Task: structure prediction
Amino acid sequence: MQQELTVRVEHIRRQLEEAAMERWGSAPQIIAVSKTVLAPRVNEVAQAGITRLGENRVQEILEKLPYLDASFQIDLIGRLQLNKVKYIIDKVAMIQSLDREPLAQEIDRRAQQHGLRMPVLIQVNIGNEPQKGGVAVDELFSFARLAASLPGLHVRGLMAIMPDLRDDAALRPYFARMRQLFDALREEAIPGTQVEELSMGMSGDYLLAAQEGATHVRIGSAIFGRRDAAAQEQKNLKGENA
Result:
């Protein structure tokens, strides 16, 4: 199992390098999305050189954390409810899904209580999809200024979840637009920001993301296998321990 994961990770790294090095001079860093994957299995990717995990749910972070390799940086990548901020504010290294003013204010309040300045990525609703979280494109810069004004937040860049399009030609402009926004925000040099991370691309489209300038890609099933299989493994284990 360990060897299998290592082979997958190395294969993805080579693909990312081929996709990005010539144009951008570096390849995106892999964030391993470990949703529904049991901690022992997650820990195996540390030996493949993975240092960052992406988790979607606060409860799952809290359950897994005691069993995860201490070398991991854990990023919250799922939509965060206001009443859950207090549980993870001192447990994660970054919140990638900052998407609204009340959440910014609550992260700020909780971070200051813990003496922290929480690194955040602003999630952009690049496809203008009502069912998805994220700041509207035309509100990004005003929201970034608001977030940067809060002492408990450290704006480090942008995150996006792409529209569910099967055609690479149709999807590519969304990635390109995110890179344009990232570069523009970095050039704006809003005081209190340090814009270095553009988190976009997942298991089905990480090569497009790399080609269009992602600095980080969030990859789950391409590393760990299908999510439904991982969920069944977890269910079986719980049954054995009942």
